[in-house]
Amino acid sequence: MSYIAGIDVGSTYTKAVILDEHRNLVAQAMVPTGFRLAQAAERAYRRALAQAELHEQEVVYLVTTGFGRHQVPFRDVQVTDLTASARGATFLFPDTRTVLDVGGQTMKASRLDQGAKVKAFRLNDKCAAGTGAFLEKTARYMGFTTEDIGPLVATSKKPVPISGVCAVFAESEVINHLSQGSAPADILHGAIVSLVDRSLQLMKRVRMEPAYTLIGGIMRFETMVRVVQAQLKGPVHVPPPELVQFVPALGAALLGLQRWQRRQQEAARQAVRLTPAS
Q1: Which among 10, 48, 126, 235 is most buried, taking Cβ atoms within 10 Å?
Q2: Element (H, E) at 26
Q3: pTM: predicted TM-score of the whole model, two decimal places
Q4: Are 91 and 251 in contact (CB under 8 A)?
């Protein structure tokens, strides 16, 4: 059995997955990225290998993606995160035509054709208010951790409006709401609604089409998915919680498997051509 690996070196976390040659997921691992990108990629990869009880020699092809994809010296090839996300999303949900990816530092929307190729895409600006980092910063300011966000927002009665167009102004609004006695759950709910508004603007700019697939770490929060679904007025696809952050890494591995199989087929054809006629 041969195995293929995909590594997504993201701005906040680095994810690694390993597939077998039949496209079965055999391992996945995630570590904080930090400032040493190559080391983060290696740590995630080693954890995935250990989980699958594999030796490095058994992995025949490795593809990297994400903003740090160029920094991994042991890769075979690198692909953009948009391309990898498109392949991973359509593998999980073949009817996907629009992908929204909201991570810790970035937000991306892309429209795909029937062949899973990216036809249009838009990225958020550099403001943290357009990413998951704003939710985490808001939670920390109020004394909560990232893990508290989901359970806390689930208790919200009504979202408090957060209209700031950047993280600095939005934080001022949070401070003001707290001083007026607003519940932390309602403030976080309002921050999610604000984040969804920004994400929908990106989706509109790529001329979004159903079916919609939502990926990225922020999609772990049920309220985020629910608000997006309400705004789109229709169903959305969301990978299971254990996979929602791994879609680009999965897509990278799938692309690697496709390239490796082509190499194998070409090698077989070459062998046939070089075989002497009897």
Answers
A1: 10
A2: strand 25-32
A3: 0.90
A4: yes
